Please model this.
Amino acid sequence: MIKPSSFLRRVSTLACLAAIGFGSAFGSSLPAEGGKCMMWKATNGTNVVYLLGSIHIGSKKMYPLAKPIEDAYSASKTLVVEVNLNKVNPMDSMGYVTEVGMYKGDDNLWKHIKPATTDRVKEFCQTYGMAPTMLGMFKPWLVSVELEVLPLQKAGMDLNLGIDKYFLDRAAKPNSGKTVEQIEDAQFQLKLLSALPEDESDEYLTYSMGESKSQVQEEPKLESLWLNGNADEMDKVTSQLPDRLKPFMRKLLQDRNPHMADVAEKFLKSGEKCFFVVGTAHLVGQEGVIALLKKRGYSVFQVDAKP
Model:
């Protein structure tokens, strides 16, 4: 059974992994030239906003964070995140999940996906040590939430080591001096995922499982791209999507970016120094938050990994 305590972090993770594609989440990547952080500095005169791309599921390799990242957080008064998971009531959200993500009566997952997809799910579960019978009551989008992170966890990544979780926990400490602002709420993200059309759910589930049977033995590409600050490559892999899924992925990613840019711009105009942490896939690319801020006339540059 999916635990409420970790499910919402899985939901946030899925939005990032879905954009990158599970099949692309593993494998080698080229180091970025110049040694960059996955962080940008936006300015409006003397006003500053730092924008850090998050991976919602991290590993010990990612810590300690680069000094410029830690310095930017220390210098900022407000931490802005997609969702403040430390303030969410998991049971309320799980009630919504039960309503829109689980079958009732004798209905089940296997009646809504193709036989070939059923075989793939069972094979995937066997590879990663999960009993497929645990998934029967869940709708395909909810199964994707659970399965998408399994190989990453087997490869040593942990939902408790996500970048946004790291900073949220620091901000929650007594006398941290930080204000936390969320851009969205948990139910908004759940509604996005549960809105996947029925006729696309089978394809999406297959896509979320990827192709390789031995990915657990490979270094997660997601982690490698982040550590190298390789924004161009991150943007490239986010575009590798099946055509039928692109409209749904646009709702998960690009359609949310203008509002995120609005929030960043609010701080750029207010003069309050802000540390802005959202999924990396939201920052990069021609429709990403960084590009949107540049189009609005702000100076934005990627920060070097070394001071």
The chain has one domain: 4-304.
